[in-house]
Amino acid sequence: MTLALDLALCALIVCVSLATVAGGGIFRAIIFFITYGLFLAIGWARLGAFDVALAEAAIGAGLTGVLLLAAHGRLRRMRTKAVVQRTGLNLPAALAATAMTGALGWAWFALPAPSVPDLSQSIAQTGVGNPVTAVLLNFRAWDTLLESIVLLAALLGVWMLAREEDWNTPLGPRYHALSGGVLVGFGRLLPPVGLIFGAYLVWAGAESVGGAFQGGTVLAAVGLVALMANVLPAPSISQAGLRIALVLGPGVFLCTGLLAAALGSDFLSIAPEVAKAMILTIEIALSISIAVTLALLVLGPPVDTQGAP
Amino acid sequence: MMADIATYVLTALGLVFFVAGTVGLLRFPDTFSRLHALTKADNLGLGFIALGLAFQAESWAQLAMLALIWALALLAAGTVAQLVARAALAGLQEDE
Questions:
Q1: Given an 8 Å threshold on Cβ–Cβ distance, is A182 in contact with B78?
Q2: Among A25, A202, A220, B2, which is disulfide-ready with A287 (CB 3.0 to 4.6 Å)?
Q3: What's the CA gap between A292 and A299, in Å, rounded?
Q4: Whole-angstrom Cα distance, residue A245 to residue A263?
Q5: Which residues of A fall within a CB distance of 8 Å from B76?
């Protein structure tokens, strides 16, 4: 019975991925891409990788989907029909993607199995019970630190698209929500539940499924819903609190790493006695930064819509 | 044993509603009636599936989570249906 379920799931993933790349317009491709991410999340959950499943659903399907939809909406508003309508098979891209997949598949079988040291005995010293969090914030903290900085760099890259005179205009398109309408009601009802759920994911990440990236994405979504319902005023780059929130995570992460180095051990090493407190501090700071960065990425660069041609 | 039978019956009933909603989505002529089929039938279907799974829950916390999932899906589906309908209506008026 479970074999039938898994086979059906695999078939669905393959079919939806083919539908994503098979053409038929950009909007359809985006919708299939979101569906593909949700099916992948179910696949990860079937494999028992619940942290990855949550991340795939929240970031792979949800956030990336919203980013793609926002880009599609912007292209449509710019009336770049000639660019948007270009469909059909892109042969060089298809060949390159197929070759890449083939090479990766070949490498998987050709390379010898790596000899991984057994770290299961060391989890107890990391301060957290969730092995994924132990790897992300203790064993391989370098990767996570650089990831959080990459996210910040991506946002700076988006902001570089702004024109000098637009710099202080509020971020994002002007949302029209009818006062007393459904969207405003939704924007008031959802945030309390979403805030609790996002904070729970960050807190629970230490011992079970969850973490800064999953929790941060939920918080970003809550913020975006509140913005779209005009419950929150549109932010602007000049707000000091916003800038502090952006660098809080990488900053706290770097400072704890430097502190460890100053106290005589290695950069980014965490002493077992203080590990839990330090990891939770880093996780909370990281999730605030991730939430604000992701929400601002969706809002895009500051554009003066009044003065736009 | 009784609980298992209840789960089978209720989740099967939920699936019937999902199939009905999907058929409506594919067969109905315009955006508004498609939305009607999709949200009404799927919300009921999800409710029956959550109710069926509730008979397998091991704790009150799991029951509460199932109820929360249904409530959030209901809230999101209702809101999105309104927004899609309004966007479709605006599109119709633009065409005229």
A1: yes
A2: A202
A3: 11
A4: 27
A5: 186
Q: What confidence tens digit (pLDDT) does each residue in A99-130 have?
A: 999 999 999 899 888 777 777 777 777 778 78
Taking any CB pair shorter than 8 Å as contact, residues of chain B touching chain A are: 68, 72, 75-76, 78-79, 82-83
Q: Which of A180, A179, A182, A162 is nearest to A171 (CA)?
A: A162
User: What pLDDT was estimated at residue A87?
Assistant: 57
Q: What pLDDT score was predicted for residue A285?
A: 93
Q: How far is B78 from chain A (nearest CA, A)?
A: 9
pLDDT single digits (tens) B49-72: 999 999 998 899 999 999 999 999
Given a cut of 60, whether residue A309 has pLDDT beyond it is no
Q: Do the chains contact at A183 and B78, CB–CB below 8 Å?
A: no
Percent of the residues in chain A that have a pLDDT greater than 90, as a whole number: 37
Rounded Cα distance between B64 and B57, Å, is: 10
Please tell me which of the candidates A182, A189, A193 has its beta carbon nearest to residue B82: A182
Class of residue A256 by CB neighbours under 10 A (exposed 0-12, middle 13-18, buried 19+): buried
* CA angle in degrees (0–180, nearest 5) for A270-A275-A281: 100
Q: How far is A31 from chain B (nearest CA, A)?
A: 15
Q: Is the dihedral of CA B7, B9, B12, B14 positive or negative?
A: negative
Distance from CA of B18 to the nearest CA of A (A): 17
pLDDT at A43: 94
For residues A88 and A86, give the distance between their C-alpha atoms in angstroms, rounded to a whole number. 7
Q: How far apart are the first and last CA of chain B?
A: 60
Q: How far apart are the CA of B79 and the nearest CA of chain A, in angstroms?
A: 6
Please give the structure tokens belonging to residue B89.
């209506």
pLDDT tens per residue across span A158-193: 999 888 888 888 887 777 777 778 888 888 889 999
Sorted by sequence, the CB contacts under 8 Å of residue A222 that are 6+ apart come out as A190, A191, A194, A195, A198
Residues in chain A closer than 8 A to B78 (CB atoms): 182
pTM listed for this prediction: 0.84
Contact A147, A59 (CB under 8 A): no
Interface touch B83/A183, C-beta < 8 Å: yes
Q: Between chains, do B79 and A193 touch, taking CB under 8 Å as contact?
A: no
| Confidence band, pLDDT 50/70/90 cuts, at residue A40 | very high
| Cα–Cα distance for residue pair A151/A290, rounded to 1 Å | 8
Q: What is the pLDDT of residue B95?
A: 66
